[in-house]
Amino acid sequence: MRIAVAGGTGKTGRRVVDKLRKQGHQPVVLARAHGVDLIENTGLDAALDGVEAVIDVADFGTMNAQKARACFGAATTNLLAAAQRSGVRHHVALSIVGVDRVPTGYYQAKLHQEELVRAGGVPWTILRATQFHEFADQILAQVPGPIAIVPKMRSQPIAVREVAAHLCTLATGEPLQMAPELAGPRVEWVADMARQLIRRRGQRRPVISLRIPGAGGKGMANGGLLPTGPGPRGEQTYTDWLAALAPDRT
């Protein structure tokens, strides 16, 4: 099966591409490095020739609300239009658990992406997944200094490879529209995740957990980013992920 992967050179996309190859499918990478620009709308029609399904895991590396909405909006609109012209039968988009309950700028941009997929002309599946195990590391990288201030937040982190595998399964099946939410095996406080990662690195850095002001911060602190119903759960815990980190990654 010929399956296009939007954002196929990113953290999630690389694992999706690898999984598809191992399953015997023919992945087509939609990324600038492969001659496709989702935002500028270049190279899409040629890349989607003969493609039966699209998995969209593209991200744009910004937390700015206006920029994120513009990037996701343009990329999704262009991708869906090209997919419809090419006769793609299934569009699978990765989203985030709780985007409709935690009104932060980035999550609202992802919710806008979901709206475009729903309104598009290609049969669709949206998979909302919880944060990856790398989430705490990403937060720590954004707050340099001797003290790490992290948002008061609960998460149910999951391994990227497990999300990638689930996306591949969805893409080769029939469109489900809203798929059951995918989450990790255990609920964690993000501050505890950060502390464990710091200890794993042999560092000494105090972690302070503060609630972000506003409705978004309230939602994070009160479990707004946790799944609300039954659904598939990953197997690798955050503790297992930490233990498996290679020395050069700690």
Architecture overview:
This protein has about 250 residues and is an alpha/beta fold. The chain has one domain: NAD(P)-binding Rossmann-like Domain (Rossmann fold), CATH 3.40.50.720. The protein has helices at about 10-20, 45, 65-85, 105-120, 135-140, 160-170, 190-200, 215-220, 240-245, and strands spanning about 1-5, 25-30, 55, 90-95, 125-130, 150, 155, 175-180, 190, 205-210. It has a six-stranded parallel beta sheet with strand order 2-1-3-4-5-8, sandwiched between helices. A two-stranded parallel sheet has the order 6-10. Strand 1, helix 1 (about 10-20) and strand 2 form a beta-alpha-beta unit.
Taken in chain order, the helices and strands follow as EHEHEHEHEHEEHEEHEHH
Question: Any idea of the CATH topology?
Answer: Rossmann fold
- How many distinct beta strands? 10
Radius of gyration: 18 Å
How are the strands ordered across the major sheet? Answer: 2-1-3-4-5-8
Helix and strand content put the structural class at alpha/beta
How far apart are the termini? Answer: 38 Å
Q: State the domain count.
A: 1
Total of DSSP H or I helical runs spanning 4+ residues: 9
Shape: globular
The proportion of strand residues reads: 15-25%
Q: How would you sum up the major sheet?
A: 6 strands, parallel
User: According to CATH, what is the class?
Assistant: Alpha Beta
Q: Can you tell me the CATH architecture?
A: 3-Layer(aba) Sandwich
Fraction in helix: 25-40%
Question: Superfamily at the CATH H level?
Answer: NAD(P)-binding Rossmann-like Domain
| Mean pLDDT over the residues | 94
Show unreliable segments.
none
